[in-house]
Fold:
Amino acid sequence: MLKGKTALVTGSTSGIGLGMARRFASEGANVVLNGFGDQGEIESLRREIAEQYNVQVTYSNADMSKPDQIEAMIREAESTFGAVDILVNNAGIQHVAAIDEYPPEKWEAVIAINLNHCFYTTHYALPKMREKGWGRILNVASAHGLVGSAGKSAYVAAKHGVIGLTKVTALDTAGSGITCNALCPGWVKTPLVVQQIEAKAKQKGIPAEQAEKELLAEKQPALEFVTTEQLAGYAAFLCSEDARTVTGAQVQIDGGWTAQ
Ligand code: NAD
Structure:
């Protein structure tokens, strides 16, 4: 379905981004991976995806909190592949603390990575999409783009911002063959959430399995995690011709979290 297209997925060395990168490769797209991690493991991953799906896969170690590195990543992708046809803004971090105890440097980091990076990638990638008259921008927001949770000021502010940015990107590109949508997942069991399960278990002195059940029961009525494969499937749909008039949407994939 995506043969000849190039998908750049920020934060794709792990979790949701990696799931999406694999799915796009399986649909025939060339892929630009990005994110942190062990360089040897990332190189094995890069090679494995390229060989498994017979597509070209490159890797950028650009830091999504640094606008100059973001520009360089987009330019490099364009010089290798011609354009970034599918841009997935997925890199993200979390920090949990009450506002009065929230370290200002953590606030700055969460806003830079979870919100600002989505502006910079889009800003630099859009001109080539416009030239080609086709593009798909997917912003990985969160249920926390629609509702709040205690202790997550920076994350919730950033994700609400991502949804606002998605709407304006959709309006600025309307009628040009480019769409922009936000995915709003509930709990997905990735390293980002495992960290929160472990913190909960430690804080309450309970086993991790119990902390996991409590985490789901508190927010997600379906009582099961959303999977990276389900999210990747939705992302692939948004890149299809069937979705050409879906733009500016916030898609909740959250086991009923935000229906409450
Ligand atoms: P993860 O920790 O598994 O992956 C995060 C990725 O971002 C990694 O590849 C990491 O290296 C990369 N990254 C972090 N900081 C970076 C930086 N400065 N520059 C470049 N890359 C950076 O987490 P995940 O759960 O897969 O999260 C992916 C996205 O999904 C995030 O935006 C997160 O907010 C969102 N999300 C996650 C959940 C969930 O339950 N896991 C729910 C809703 C939304």
